[in-house]
Amino acid sequence: MTDQLQVPYQVLDWLVKVIHPIYESPKSVFNDVVYALNQYQYILRPKTKVYTDVNGVSQLLLCLYGKIGVDNSIPIILWIPVNYLSNNGRDNDPWIVLDFDILPENYEIVNEHHGAEAISNKYVKGESGIINIPSLSHNSSVDIATTSPLPGTRLCNIISELLYIFKDSRAITNDMLSSISKKTPPLPIKGTATSNDTSTRNIMPSLNKPTLPPKQSLDHDKSYGPTTHTDDFNEYSPPAAVKVAPVPAIPQRPDKLTNFQSVKPNKEETQQPIQEIDYVGINTTDNDSSEKEHLLNTLQRIINNLGSNDKIRQETALNDKIAQVNSVIKGFEKVYDFQNSTLKKFNENIRSSNIELKQKMNLFHERQKILQQTCARVSQTPVKDLIEENDEHDSKMIHLVAKDRALEDAIYMLFKLFNALCEDGQHQSEDINDNISLESYLKKTRKLAREQFMVRYEIYSQNINNTDNS
Asked: Is 409 a residue whose pLDDT tops 80?
């Protein structure tokens, strides 16, 4: 076990986000799962999956999935319940089941050390695929809390026990099982030969032990003939008394077969002719050439059909790919045209804005020059000459116009003041209402209007006189 944490930070962050909203004791579950992943990170991986119980109730749970056994042939899922590590009861134990999404149909769990006959596993239930190991069995008298006193080691101990139980097991199908059962049984271990064993392996003595004479009680097969116990056994070969049936001679094999015609055996070497093998129903008769031509023509026709079909399929796929590429090119051309037109409009706007800005700058410079000239001219003229009247007529007209404007402002001021006092009369005192009345307002307004009329009449008469004199 390593003390250094090897689980990536992304996995830890994901576990925190998953465990916190689901489990009753998230801190304990997080520590237990992280410790198990740190120890068995190359075997198990975490994920979330919907678990449906026998009552049809579904819930999202965290599970550890992976493959165990010989050649990693047994896929498993270790479900972690919601109330895991929440109390000391046994209802919160993890559930270990076989992953039927990966496991082949008609599977069997086989222990390799006990041969193909020991196909039933006492820890796996049949159709449900639930795995009951001793530490999770309800009939076990040993409590997990006593076997894993350290925090975060309960799930790790369960996984280690599971790996130990299935270390020599593998999952195979029934077809593989039938093929295994048809094979010859394995050879017995040395030193366990019986009296009926007549194999040459048992007759030949072991190289590591001294040579012993054969027992007289051994019953040899009749095919080997009578045996003489006085013969000496060779240390590396069977005894000379064993007779072997004659083996027919092997026919000479040609260097290269150019057609399907089989090679006939040599009659001089064998008394009985060997029956020729019929390849794909082709017999060595007089019609051999016609049947060959027919088969070759059929094969050529099939090859031509396959080639034409492949050619049509490839041409169709190529045309589809060309159409897709052309559509993509057209789409890019439309995007390019749109962006090009937008860029041109943007450049035109920049040019027009630049021209307008230049015009405004020129106008600004012109007005600046005029202002500079005016300032230069004003600086040369005395201020007294600017404010003095040129003649008596102009001076009198200025005073009359000023008086007319002052009277107009006075009338407007009286109007505004009277309206304000009338609107807020209820908030004013009775003295103010008695001093300012409608009659006094009208008298003042008429007086000012009469005076303004006389001033304007005088201005009019002065203008007429000035026009006549000029």
From this structure: yes
- Per the structure, the complete domain to which residue 344 belongs is given by 292-384
Query: Phi and psi of 443, rounded to 5°?
Result: -65, -45
Across 194-217, average pLDDT: 46
Does one domain contain both 26 and 160? Answer: yes
Lowest mean pLDDT among 275-279, 350-354, 389-393: 275-279
311 and 406 fall within a common domain: no
Q: Decide if pLDDT at 184 tops 70.
A: no
Give yes or no: residues 16 and 70 share one domain. yes
Is there a single domain that holds both residue 163 and residue 65?
A: yes
Question: 267-273, long-range: CB within 8 Å, 24+ apart, which pairs?
Answer: 272/248
Count of the separate structural domains present in the chain: 3
- Give the closest residue to 448 by CA, choosing from 417, 414, 422, 416: 414
Which tops the pLDDT comparison, 340 or 176? 340
**Which one of 348, 367, 384 terminates a domain?**
384
The contacts of residue 10 (CB under 8 Å, 6+ apart) are none
Express as a percent the part of the chain with pLDDT over 70. 59
> Considering 366, 384, 402, which residue would you say is the last residue of a domain?
384
pLDDT digits (tens, 9 = 90+) for 102-127: 776 656 676 666 554 444 467 777 66
Residues 18 and 125 in one domain: yes
In the β-sheet with 74-80, what is the strand arrangement from edge to edge?
A: 44-52, 58-68, 74-80, 95-98
Here the CATH number for the domain that contains residue 51 is 3.10.110.10
Are 17 and 67 in the same domain? yes
pLDDT in tens, 11-59: 899 999 999 998 888 899 999 999 989 888 888 899 999 988 888 888 8
